[in-house]
Amino acid sequence: MINIKNLKEIEDSLSLSLPLSSLVLLFIIISADSMKSLIPCNLRKLAVSNLIYKHVIGFLTLLFFVELVLIENEKENFISVLKKSGILYLLFILTTKMYYPLFMILIFILLIIFMIDIYKKRTNDSKEKIKIIDKIKNILYIFSIILILVGPIIYYSIKKEQYKNNFNIIKFLFGTVNQRCEY
Question: What is the domain range of residue 102?
Answer without folding.
Answer: 4-174
